[in-house]
Write a structure and sequence with these properties.
The structure is a single chain. The chain has about 400 residues and is an alpha/beta fold. The protein has two domains: about 150 residues, 2-Layer Sandwich (VC0802-like), CATH 3.30.2130; about 170 residues, Vaccinia Virus protein VP39 (Rossmann fold, 3-Layer(aba) Sandwich), CATH 3.40.50. Helix content is about 30%, strand content about 25%. A hairpin with a 3-residue loop joins β2 and β3. It is elongated and about 75 Å long. The chain starts with a strand and ends with a helix. Keywords: Methyltransferase, RNA-binding, Transferase. GO terms for molecular function: RNA binding; rRNA (guanine-N2-)-methyltransferase activity; rRNA (guanine-N7-)-methyltransferase activity.
């Protein structure tokens, strides 16, 4: 297709493969994994669809120009030489986000300032007036990325990070980022084909993302808006078509999604957020202490949770993690239990051998996403049965 162009989707460490799979499933071409990003090609409609539907992307940027830069003056000249009127008018506002990884350029703020000066001076020299900067809610967000002496100029099509889905108004002390929650669910193999439990659900993010995956609901359907809606070439009719066709691809879900939390405030917050996401038909939240519960359903149970950690709540790590292991052993046969922790030494207290251990980051904390397979009956009996068949 002649009107395809290159884009880059940014993501969290360890989610690059998930994101490239999502992009291919949506119909992207030339998908290439990088570090914390995946580049791909598509047309304008696909850019809208990527922002709306991708679960593991944080931002979608559209590169518009790249060049080599020697120093700050060279950067200024080359930014000045660009045709900014194609993207911005004097009556609109803009903001610059800069990322630098270079010996020559060491301060991203200085790079932002130089870029801003070049754009403003270009408008002033040609129009006699200039567009204003608005850091909070600009009409155009420009992304500058300098690696050594290579400079890439891109337009940010997303605006605020795509983890801000729009359904979460009430949160706990340290809620899990929605993109992280969604990525963990996809890593765990969650596909909506069984019952699901988050036994420490907090403000309900894992539950909400699990329901959206199960029903194939576009991840960002509840967002107030995207940056591309303010672009001069925004096609509102095309965007409406993309929304409609994405919503037609939702599917029914025939199992249960259950959340527990022992704090009444958390249960209330989770219910509010689930309500905001229009998912109350699919999710039940109950006030329960996981350590006093048993598996609530028949058949295979998929469990995924984010236990509280030291920075958030004052808990006795050894007792807490051994209680997780004991509860799983005694009350949850036929369960695939996954959880994330940044407290790596605490994992030995669980007293079970994880069948998977994946390195991920929760914010800046290096973490592990671990899986414990709890068999129906004992493991030994399962193998004996397998050998008899």
């Amino acid at each position: 297709m002649g009107n395809n162009f290159k884009m880059v989707a940014k993501t969290l460490f360890g989610f690059e493969e998930l994101l490239s799979k999502e992009l291919r499933n949506l119909g992207a071409s030339n998908v290439v994994e990088g570090t914390r990003n995946v580049s791909f090609e598509g047309d304008t409609g696909f850019m809208y669809k990527a922002n709306l539907c991708l679960r593991t992307a944080i931002k979608i940027i559209k590169p518009i120009h790249s060049f080599r830069v020697r120093d700050e003056n060279d950067l200024y000249k080359k930014i000045y030489a660009m045709e900014w009127t194609e993207y911005l008018s004097v009556s609109e506002t803009f903001a610059i986000d800069a990322t630098v990884n270079s010996e020559q350029f060491t301060h991203s703020l200085y790079v932002s300032q130089k870029t801003k000066d070049a754009i403003v001076d270009k408008f002033r020299d040609t129009d006699g007036t200039r567009p204003d900067v608005d850091v909070k809610d600009p009409d155009l967000r420009i992304n500058i990325h300098i690696h050594n002496n290579d400079c890439n100029v891109s337009l940010d099509s997303s605006g605020t990070s795509l983890h801000k889905r729009g359904y979460r108004t009430a949160t706990n002390i340290a809620p899990i980022n929605e993109v992280l929650a969604s990525g963990l669910l996809l890593l765990s193999g969650w596909d909506g084909q069984s019952d699901f439990l988050d036994p420490m659900c907090g403000s309900g993010t894992m539950l909400t993302e699990a329901a959206m995956i199960a029903c194939n609901i576009p991840a960002n359907i509840n967002r107030k808006g995207f940056a591309f809606e303010k672009w001069t070439d925004f096609d509102a009719e095309l965007f409406e078509k993309i929304i409609d066709s994405s919503l037609k691809k939702t599917r029914e879900f025939h199992h249960k999604i259950i959340g527990y939390d022992k704090a009444p405030s958390a249960v209330r917050k989770a219910q509010d957020n689930i309500d905001n996401a229009n998912l109350t038909d699919y999710i039940t939240v109950e006030r329960k202490d996981f350590f006093k519960t048993y598996k609530p359903t028949e058949g295979t149970l998929h469990m995924c949770f984010n236990p509280p950690y030291g920075e958030r709540l004052d808990i006795d790590m050894e007792n807490f993690y051994s209680a997780i292991g004991d509860t799983l052993k005694q009350g949850y046969p036929g369960t695939n239990a996954w959880f994330i922790t940044s407290n790596l030494p605490a994992l030995k207290f669980v007293g079970l051998r994880p069948s998977r251990k994946i390195k991920v980051f929760n914010s800046h904390l290096e973490s592990r996403f671990v899986k414990y397979e709890m068999y129906e009956g004992s493991k030994k009996a399962k193998y004996q049965k397998g050998n008899e068949e």
